[in-house]
Structures are given as structure tokens and as C-alpha cells.
Amino acid sequence: MPASSTPAAVDAVQRIVDLEDLGPSVRVTTSLRTTLGDAPSALWPMLTRPALLETWYGPVTVADGAFEAVGGAHGGVLEAEAPHRLRLSWEYGTNVDDLAIALDPEDDGTTELRLVHVADVPHEVFDRFGPGATALGWDIALLGLAARTGAWRELCLDVPAPSAVWLASEDGARYVRAWSIRWAAASVAAGTDETVARRGEVETARAYGGLRDVAAV
Q1: How confident is the model at residue 207 (pLDDT cuts 50, 70, 90)?
Q2: Which InterPro entries did the record assign (predicted)?
């Protein structure tokens, strides 16, 4: 994909992958880091109040320390230290993952947000999709948060609000392709064979609608 077609907002996020071979599965730790132009106290309610979560992430119900999110994900709150630390069990299907979000204040009034997702992924799934299978959804979520809060305004970025209609558009496909490329590069940096990482890039982009007519690698 030509560099000129890469949306600038894609690189407002730093992505890191760590991999641990567990035999039948791979422990995949994906980290997303970005700077948001609000203080932690302003961002915390956006992450913890269901009515505000719905405005950028989707419907979330919370009761007695448990939650259920859009798409069938559910789990429990393991730690909550307002307005800086949130750790959840993130469960879907038979998976029980660890999800941690940190909001650290910066001297200029902004916040460094770090999201870390740890998942044990079967080898056949990782070899097909790479880290994008679990990580690209968080790119979409951070884009939604930034669009809803204007939190990348200091970067002078045009930030679209992701929706199902937007993801199905060519603009949405451009973002999906760019995110998939970034996760493949992070996977190579973590030690994944480049051919395997490239296959994961293509299959992840296709799964999210970024590639409609590209043959499998």
C-alpha cells in the first residue's frame, strides 16, 4: 500500500507484540500506546461508565463487578484504581484473556494510555492471522475513543468515528489495511517469520473487510 494512502491517525498509536510459545498455543501480548489530549480524570468515565462507553465502544452492561460487551465479550473487573488503572478478564468463546488499561498523566495535561491484551492463541489461528486476530479490534476502539473525545486534537488529525457503515467503506478499508500492516511488522519484530507475518497481515485485513479481492498468501 503506498505510504501516501496511509491515514495519519494510524500512527498516533505505537504497537508492540511479545510472543511466548506454549506448545499447542502461542501466548500473544499486544500493547497499544497513545497520547490523548485529556487528563486521566476526564478519560476514566469514558472507560468505566456504561452510558459513556456506549457512545464510542458500543453497548456494555455492568452488574456486580461483571460486564457484558458488544460482540459477546464478557468478563469481570479484576482491579480498578480510579483514574489510572483498570484490569479485566476478557472472555469470549472458551478464551479467558487478561486486559489492562493504564492512564498515566503527562506534565502538559495530556495522558499516556497503554492497553495490554494477553491471549493464548492456538498455533493454527496465530499462523493464519498473526497478532491482528486479537489486536485490530483495539485499534478500532481507540479510534472511536479519540473521535468521541477529540483526544488527538493536539496532533491536528482528522479522526473518523468508526461504525459498521464506515468499516464497510473504502476509507474504513484503508485503515484496516494500514493497521494490519503495522501488526505484521510488530510480529516480525517479535520474531515471527516474515512470510507467516505477511499471511497474517492479509488474512486479518480480509477478516475485517480491508481486502475484498486479494488472494490468500
Answers
A1: very high
A2: ASHA1/2-like_C, START-like_dom_sf
C-alpha 150: how far from its chain's center?
18
**Would 84 be classed as within a structural domain?**
yes
The model's pLDDT over 23-54, given as tens digits with 9 standing for 90+, comes to: 999 999 999 999 999 999 999 999 999 999 99
104: domain range?
Answer: 10-207
Answer whether residue 214 is part of any domain: no
Give DSSP secondary structure letters for 152-190: TGGGT-------HHHHTSHHHHHHHHHHHHHHHHHHHHT
What pLDDT does 214 receive?
A: 43
CATH code of 164's domain: 3.30.530.20
Task: Tell me how crowded residue 183 is: count the other CB atoms within 10 A of its CB.
Answer: 27
Q: Nearest Cα to 10, choosing from 128, 146, 134, 111?
A: 146
